Amino acid sequence: MLRQHSYWQLFSAVCKKDVQLAFRQRAEIVNPILFFLIVITLFPLAIGPEPGLLARMAPGIIWVAALLSTMLGLDKLFRDDFNDGSLEQLIASSYPLPLTVLGKVVAHWLITGLPLVLMTPLFALLLNLDSQALVATVLTLLLGTPLLSFIGAIGAGLTVGLQKGGILMSLLVLPLYIPVLIFATSAIDTSTMSLDYSGQLAILGAMLVIAIISAPIAISSALKVSVS
Amino acid sequence: MWKWLHPYAKADRAYQLCNTLLPYFAVITVVCMLVGWVWGLAYAPADYQQKDSYRIIFIHVPSAILSMGAYSSMAIAAVIALVWQLRNAELAVIAIAPVGACVTAIALITGAAWGKPMWGAWWVWDARLTSELILLFLYLGVLSLYHAFEDKKAAGRAASILAIVGVINLPIIHFSVEWWNTLHQGATITKFDTKAIDSSMFWPLMVNIVAFAGFVGTVTLMRLKNEILQREKHRPWVRQLLNRG
Amino acid sequence: MLHIKSVTCIKQDRCLFADLNFRLKSGQIMQLAGPNGAGKTSLLRIIAGFSAPDEGQVMWQGESIAKNYDEFARELLFIGHKTGVNNQLSAIENLRFWLQIQGYDTDQELYSLLAKIGLVGLEDVPVRTLSAGQQRRVALIRLWLNDAKLWVLDEPFTALDKAGVAFLQQRFLTHLEQGGAILLTTHQDLTTHFAHLQTVTLEYRH
Fold this sequence. Notes:
A: about 230 residues, mainly alpha, elongated, C: alpha/beta, 4-stranded antiparallel beta sheet, globular, transmembrane (chain A), transmembrane helix (chain A), cytochrome c-type biogenesis (chain A), Cyt_c_biogenesis_CcmB (chain A)
């Protein structure tokens, strides 16, 4: 019985399994996007369709909708693995758990974050954003949505063992999302004024690096608590 | 660190430590609070711009400082709980959390009350107030997570993890809110001008800060004693204690 | 190999067991017995390292498992109530995934193994369409696919038919002959004769 220790094998196996499962039940991929689209449709109906006003509010609308739609998938992130015992197998594997967790979070981003990034041109059209702001929106979503996945996974890990963890998780996670929201929307805002917004992007990037390094450790210890 | 902590890993020793410390904290609290309030509210001179309404800083500022202070001490207790696996530190986390949440609420309410005469509105999205509000959310998150778990051992560890995550995020949140505020409002009135406050107001303020710190310490110790007794209620030493009266 | 050292477990203010001591040596099988709620599963989960004992230690090869968990995890095979089989995936996919996360080579004769355990023709359908006994078999195939020394099995015979139970016990025998150790809970009596069978009974405590 050969044992090869390849961290890449573990990472890709964990990541592939989740993506594969998501593609089997397409609703998991489609629903957050539909949700995002519907939330965005509600705003013009609520505040009026005036193009100038919409363009002014677009960064906020897009980002609040992004926060909410990533929350949808988060509850499921560890729930199935917890219920069927796979989580125990992952903990009792000889690989370090943070690496496994990294694979799962990346999969979550591929399922919920990346489609949002790809759909941005459509949203920009609906909210009357010009091309400069469109580029900024894509860039902030590209840097910001993985951050949402990492931070959110901490909340998901802490609440996965609870019967009604869903709402509690949003309470834990949303306050932690505030810096992402502030810097991302401000980057888009700045871009509409044709100013340089690389500073905000740099801060988002720095936060992402911190999250990639530290969040998996926090998530692993959260999962160990939930399984015990 | 471990050598120093080790004796208090045992619940009964920790309980005794609480008992020894409690009177000191209580005395400091009562004395400083009496002195500070009388001095601050009656004797300190009125502000030349804000008249007497500024006197709320003798409550607002100490509670705002302590709301952050309590969160940091909670996070330190959480680190000790997770790194050295000390159950008593977990209990300390959960003993501090509601106290900190209350102090934060006091800071918010007094801040809003102060805002009314100053800005003409109960709530203004001032950077400090907004940070304070988010801090309250973080406290409430720790508390509701703790109470959502049936198994209190798991609850303590989960709350500790969240407290640590929160304390790492707190400076980032604080910085981002501060930055957001200057971005959107330009130079609005900040409550403190950078010029040093007069020593006739500074010293009563200091006394009040010490009083609040003492108060938080006292209530936390009382809660900690309770938590220890509750968790250890089946142990012989608790039974002995109860039998003694 | 495995040494349970004065382990105590308290759940919801109820002491399940206190100051429990036993050793499990290479080649030995141990059956945990006791009524429902006596703490069998809790003990297994403590031994597998998922939860920490309230007092005492679990030692593996003379070292506390809490200290060097990754090392211990390499020697451990745990199959619990929740079997760790994803019911959206097929049997083959489940096994491949499990081999990957345990760091084993995936080019193994999975199909012939599945045939041996009686799952011919069911290799590629989602596990949720299989019967309870068949699902249990999918989980138990791991027993043929590992080189772990210590097996910790929580009610492995649940939902298995008689032939399955006998087949499983044959596998236990070869594992013990190769110097492994098994710790299991079961309400059924073991039908095969094991030379080194120990029984630990946990009483229900109020």
